[in-house]
Amino acid sequence: MQGEQGHAMQGEQLHAMQGEQLHAMQGEQGHAMQGEQLHAMQGEQGHAMQDEQLHSMQGEQGHAMQGKQGHVMRVSIPENEPAGTAVIVLRAQDPDEGEAGRLAYSMEALFDERSNDYFTIDAETGSVVTARSLDRETKDTHVLKVTASDHGSPRRRSATTYLTVTVSDTNDHEPVFEQPEYRESIRENLEVGYEVLTIRATDGDAPANANMLYRLLEPGAGDGVFEIDPRSGVVRTRASVDREEVSEYHLVVEANDQGKDPGPRSATAMVHITVEDENDNYPQFSEKRYLVQVPEDAPVNSQILQVQATDRDRGSNAQVHYSIVSGNLKGQFYIHSFSGAIDLINPLDYETIREYTLRIKAQDGGRPPLINSSGMVSVQVVDVNDNAPIFVSTPFQATVLENVPLGYSVLHIQAVDADSGENARLEYKLIEMAPSTGGAPVAGDSGFPFQINNSTGWITVAAELDRETVENYHFGVEARDHGVPVMTSSASVSITVLDVNDNNPTFTEKVYHLRLNEDAAVGSSVLTLTAVDRDVNSVVTYQITSGNTRNRFAITSQSGGGLITLALPLDYKQERQYVLTVTASDGTRFDTVQVFINVTDANTHRPVFQSSHYTVSVSEDKPIGTSIVTISATDEDTGENARITYILDDNIPQFRIDPDTGTITTLMELDYEDQASYTLAITAHDNGIPQKSDTTYVEILILDANDNAPRFLRDRYQGSVFEDVPLSTSVLQLSATDRDSGLNGRLLYTFQGGDDGDGDFYIEPTSGVIRTLRKLDRENVAVYSLRAFAVDRGSPPLKASVDIQVTVLDINDNPPVFEKDEFDIFVEENSPVGSIVARISAADPDEGTNAQIMYQIVEGNIPEVFQLDLLNGDLTALMDLDYESRTEYVIVVQATSAPLVSRATVHIRLLDQNDNPPVLQDFQILFNNYVTNKSNSFPSGVIGKIPAHDPDVSDSLAYTFVQGNELNLLLLDSVTGELKLSRDLDNNRPLEALMKVSVSGATL
């Protein structure tokens, strides 16, 4: 019965026997109820399903179960097995019978719903088979929840376990190249060991089946010119490359994954390497010396020859430009820059120049160009009978005294022929020009008094003259050359027979001075001289007797005077003054006079440039006002006729030419990247009247300067790479451009200043491919911030930088880690069943699905007192916890991030609660005391102890008298429960005392 203090048992009565015995009598209530006993009640079906225990069996195909760890089953199965392959058979036990013991199995995916498509479970047998072929590269781990449910009524009971299926790798993937075909260009003459490109192949299999080796297959291995690094796939040159020998290489690269199961797989890719041309070959003329014979009457603007030079290079490096370096006297010829055709642009004159020796320059279009100036062309001018004889004067007139002897030379008939050789060798003969008047004989009559020497042209007296018979003779003279065809000219001759006289002719002037322009027309009158003969009927004839250099002048007698005419063209450069001695004769007597003829210059020559094409170069970084080249032309005239002015034909704003000196200077800044060359047409004109000119072309090649810094194609690069990739794995490729050319535009990529991820990455200097240099660890560094530079090879070099972010992708390479290896958990007893008593957690430094953790109890949970939530680690009590039954549990928990695990020991210590009342049964104390005569009282001291007990270890009991001890017969220690006799007890007291005692706990 409950006492006054709440939990003390009521009804115990203490009966003290006065005298020999003192005994406690059992109370009215009999025995106290020590506590209720809990029983699992039998269900309606006969037996409660307390906890089905799942047992795994080996699958039909022989796939061994890796082990049962608590509530998680683990199996492994190779990929690519056909649908229907047995995985495992799961069985649950249920001690019930009938429908209550008939089980149905079901299964669902955890974490990834795709797993539902890959497996099925037989609802009756628990056999798990594949529903389709597995692919490790698509998903390598499947976590499934398997439930077994009975068919009991009214409530169906179930149990759950977890199945982890790991898909093992087979070598079912061939290597796959990053590109089906690789194309790369390299320049010829590169150094041996130059890295051309990097070949990369990947394999979806696991690393053991994806360890790539590269090699070049024969044929097509480049005849030993190239080699490939078997590990990195870097293709390098191992011999010098000459485009003129081989311009393209076609390589076959094999990648072998070295797989073991079922064997290695390989793939091939084509690599096309084009060799770019370097300007390393000079143009070569087809002949050492060209010889051409050109008739002097060849038409102007006709082609006389085509020279040809070939260049073994390609493209602009092989494009040949031709120009005449020297020998082009008076600008006689023009060569077409591109074709090499040489045209005649001015008439030839054999009589002036008989042979031209031209030096030809062949220049290719390279930067810088290569020049061959060894071309020689000999142009031999062939004479043509293109000039008829020209009489120095027409008509010819002469007088002769009638008394001259036979053979007397009367008149010198003179003709000239500008041709040469036989074409210029003349014969003279007398011809009949017209009937003579007055019955005078004509040429051809027998007895004609004159004859002509057919070689010298002198007409002499062949018969005696008789003025009284014939005073005047009129006939013709013909000059014939020996050319083919024969060319002739004729002139009239008049000879007057004079009387003999005794007076000398006398010139009216003692000396003559005059100026004559050099461009005076042949045949034009120069001066008329007059000599007077006092004789009657005297006839004065005139002759130039000296000073007539090159027979430039002729003189005839007209109207009593001597007319000097121009017989041949004048040339101011050859002769600037003539001093003629003219003789006036009446046949026997004569007089002389000097004629001073000063030749004045005429604008007969046009300016002539030294070359029809000039090529010069200038660096683009030269300042405005830089003198590039000075060109000059010559003019064989003099004075104003030879003063030359230079002008630009086209308005090209970048340049100007000094009109007086011919110096070309820059007016604007030049930019090679905007325009690499200019062609200026320069005209030189003289200041004569009429004005004459010549034109040449100046090609100005702009030389590149390193004035453009490299520029990346992107402002920022981002890439990602798995942390388990092998060394030298390609992460991403940078690309930059440089508008400069040659070395100024050739780029190298590099890390500078420690921006290479502390040495975890390196960059290929020529390709810009960033590769891993060391093993990566995402848990150590998840994101790298790199900075790369593109540096050109100019002097000084220019560079550009770009920021790169490389994200390291996670793989499941870290096991879960508990906070500590052992946990101490304190749990109050009597915690409700199903309540969460603790949370066990582990951390996984991986991320995403690689950091998903499954928890399970693997040891110590027998019987199953606790349950650990698979996903969050909540520890739940499945049964009542009673400190008085068991004070501590030790379990081992496991955290799994497939296939990695870790374990920890958990000590679960129960905290006692005051959940038990003290236990006290009726008792009696009997003792005997023999009273002596010496004493009339009972002895003192402990006579007994109240036999109370509390199962709660933490409780301390308190003892008190409730009733029956009003006379203070006994003393009670409230803490220990010990009883002593009071000193007030004596023989006069009652022999028996019934007392009621109360015992209470600390909180009850």
Automatic annotation (TrEMBL):
Keyword Metal-binding: no
SUPFAM superfamilies referenced in this protein's UniProt entry, alphabetically: Cadherin-like
Predominant subcellular localization, coarse grouping: membrane
Gene Ontology CC, one term: plasma membrane
Keyword terms of this UniProt record: Calcium, Disulfide bond, EGF-like domain, Glycoprotein, Membrane, Receptor, Repeat, Signal, Transmembrane, Transmembrane helix
Subcellular location: Membrane
Residue span(s) of domain Cadherin: 69-177, 178-285, 286-391, 392-507, 508-609, 610-712, 713-818, 819-920
GO molecular function, one term: calcium ion binding
Classification via Gene3D superfamilies: Cadherins
Gene Ontology biological process terms in this record: homophilic cell adhesion via plasma membrane adhesion molecules
UniProt keyword annotation of Thylakoid present: no
PANTHER family the UniProt entry points to: CADHERIN EGF LAG SEVEN-PASS G-TYPE RECEPTOR 1, FAT ATYPICAL CADHERIN-RELATED
Protein name (record): Cadherin EGF LAG seven-pass G-type receptor 1
Organism this protein belongs to: Lonchura striata (white-rumped munia)
